[in-house]
Amino acid sequence: MKFRVTLTVALATLALTSCGSSSQSGTPTGSAAGTSSAPTSTKASKDELVAWVDKVCGVTIQSIAPMEQEPALDTKNLTTMKTQFVDYLQKASDSLGKGVTDLEPFKQGPSKDSEKYVTSHTETLTKLKTTLDSSIEKVKASDPKNPQKFATDIQLVGTEISSAGLVASSSIGVLVEKDLADAEKQAANCQKRK
Questions:
Q1: What are phi and psi of 30, to 5 degrees?
Q2: What gap in Å lies between CA 149 and CA 62, rounded to an integer?
Q3: Which residue, 82, 100, 61, 75, is CA-closest to 192?
Q4: What value does the mean pLDDT take over residues 56-78?
Q5: What's the pLDDT band for 1 if we cut at 50, 70, 90?
Q6: pLDDT tens per residue across span 108-122
Q7: From start to end residue, where is composition biased (Low complexity) (predicted)?
């Protein structure tokens, strides 16, 4: 699963400029909400598995979407830029938190590995949210009246978010049963992140 965290790196560069200075099987992603399928005690059909996996990936895609959007920032006014950046990070964090909640019902899915698969998505969203929440506090504490220090702080935040995205991208895969792994390969939402 790949994340477009390069926007945050671009943002850090903007701040500096304005201041004058899987072989693994499970590769989740997400965006659509829905209900879980049949309980794990019954054998799910191939179509049921694909539909379920697609929904899980859909939730993840939707949850990450605000983080991947480029924020509108006023680079000529660092105080305004700080407020805009905090708002952007908060919106992204809230979306990740909603994704964690929305994934919970999917743990009772059609595969014996449903819970393990959903847990890998949940852990990824949670790690990203933790990083964003920490970043929000750092940006809030940064003083735009000290442009050089502010630019450095924003750059560090951008680097941390970018690193968290890379770690999440590489760790979202989870070893699952072949039928679930095959379903993921056919699920449109999951394939958006390949």
A1: -160, 165
A2: 34
A3: 61
A4: 89
A5: very low
A6: 999 888 999 999 899
A7: 19-43
The b/e string for 144-180 (b: 16+ C-beta within 10 A; e otherwise) is beebeebbbbbbebbebbbebbeebbeebbbebbebb
Are 138 and 15 in contact by the 8 Å Cβ rule? The answer is no
Confidence of residue 45 (pLDDT cuts 50, 70, 90): confident
- Angstrom distance (rounded) from CA 127 to CA 123: 6
Contact in structure between 27 and 86 (CB atoms under 8 Å)? no
Reading the block at residue 139, the tokens are 């940006």
**How many other CB atoms are there within 10 angstroms of residue 47's CB atom?**
10
Q: 79 is written with which tokens? A: 């105080």
Yes or no: say if 107 and 172 are a contact pair by the CB < 8 Å rule.
Answer: no
Cβ atoms < 10 Å from Cβ of 142: 22
What does the block give as tokens for 20? 């004058």
Q: What is the Cα gyration radius of the chain?
A: 19
Which residue's structure tokens are 């400029």?
A: 17
Angle at 50 (CA atoms; ends 47, 56), nearest 5 degrees: 140
